[in-house]
């Protein structure tokens, strides 16, 4: 079966700035792809290219095996986008917003009704149908904005930072909605800066940095490959000297724990060191290997380092 989206060596520059330097990635039908990367990495640019809103300078995008550039009108029908900036009609109600986008996206009257009945509960909007979009809270507006991306015949949904400004309840609803879509075989491309959402979404992560995909894999495999536990010692007054491998940061000494050893071993060595014993230790912290630590490892890699 063809990939839902196949990116082949995508390149894009703005003036002299090379943002995407050769992005190659396949996203399978029904998969949730979590696109991670620092601010300015090019995530939104890549989404615009995947949805045909922006032409790449080089490379090809294939949607279900067909070139997007050559079949743009046809293929764009199968793509639903909720961009980063919220775009709803403020003077229309929730129901009017959803229905009018359904019509704009080419659904018949009956199809609009069917989609509307499906989408409303997915995003928990049942109680707000007659409310004006302008009167919704920030998180509710975000949910409506994401729901609009579904009001069409889309088989692939792009959600660019859908949980920004959303409270815990709205965020959980959006995550549950994405899981629901994935269970129905819909492919979701999702960007976020909230790393904890990746595990909740059962997403496959693609880490975009320096214009290329530097790593892909499940949350577990990314943690296994790139995360290291760390030990941090905090001191009052002068930091003790002479602990090889420990980095100084304000009033802390921090070490990333290599695979061959354990936090306990490193801690024991440090605490028996005379310089540490003479210093005023105020706190000891062990940080587990998690996605955040993997993210930092990846972030520190240079442009030539691709696994
Ligand atoms: N239309 C444009 N003209 C010029 N530069 C642009 C344009 N669009 C994006 N850029 C630049 O391309 C780079 C990538 O931007 P993009 O918005 O894709 O990053 P991002 O990964 O989505 O960032 P964030 O996490 O902050 O949303 C940035 O340096 C941005 O300034």
From TrEMBL:
Keywords: ATP-binding, Nucleotide-binding, Transport. Residues 5-235 form the ABC transporter domain. GO terms for molecular function: ATP binding; ATP hydrolysis activity. The keyword Mitochondrion does not apply. SUPFAM superfamilies: P-loop containing nucleoside triphosphate hydrolases. The keyword Cell cycle does not apply. PANTHER family: ABC TRANSPORTER ATP-BINDING PROTEIN (PTHR42711), ABC TRANSPORTER ATP-BINDING PROTEIN NATA (PTHR42711:SF5). Belongs to the ABC transporter superfamily. This is ABC transporter domain-containing protein. It comes from Schleiferilactobacillus shenzhenensis LY-73.
């Amino acid at each position: 079966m063809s990939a839902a989206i196949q990116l082949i060596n995508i390149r894009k520059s703005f003036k002299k700035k090379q943002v995407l330097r050769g992005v190659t990635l396949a996203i399978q039908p029904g998969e949730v792809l979590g696109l991670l990367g620092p601010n300015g990495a090019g995530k939104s640019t890549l989404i615009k290219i995947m949805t045909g809103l922006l032409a790449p300078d080089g490379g090809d995008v294939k949607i279900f095996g067909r070139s997007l550039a050559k079949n743009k009108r046809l293929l764009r029908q199968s793509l639903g986008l909720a961009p980063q900036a919220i775009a709803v009609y403020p003077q229309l109600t929730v129901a009017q917003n959803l229905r009018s986008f359904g019509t704009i996206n080419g659904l018949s009257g009956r199809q609009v009704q069917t989609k509307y009945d499906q989408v409303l509960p997915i995003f928990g909007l049942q109680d707000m149908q007659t409310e004006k979009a302008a009167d919704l809270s920030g998180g509710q507006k975000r949910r409506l904005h994401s729901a609009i991306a579904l009001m069409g015949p889309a088989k692939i949904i792009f959600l660019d930072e859908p949980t920004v400004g959303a409270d815990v309840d709205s965020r959980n609803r959006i995550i549950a909605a994405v899981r629901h879509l994935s269970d129905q075989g819909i492919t979701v491309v999702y960007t976020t800066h909230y790393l904890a959402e990746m595990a909740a979404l059962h997403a496959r992560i693609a880490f975009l940095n320096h214009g290329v995909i530097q790593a892909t894999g499940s949350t577990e495999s990314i943690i296994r490959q790139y995360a290291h536990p760390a030990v941090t010692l905090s001191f009052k007054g002068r930091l003790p000297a002479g602990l090889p491998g420990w980095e100084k940061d304000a009033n802390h000494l921090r070490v990333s724990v290599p695979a061959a050893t354990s936090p306990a071993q490193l801690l024991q060595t440090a605490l028996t060191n005379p310089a540490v014993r003479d210093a005023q230790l105020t706190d000891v912290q062990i940080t587990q290997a998690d996605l955040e630590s993997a993210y930092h490892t990846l972030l520190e890699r240079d442009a030539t380092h691709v696994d």
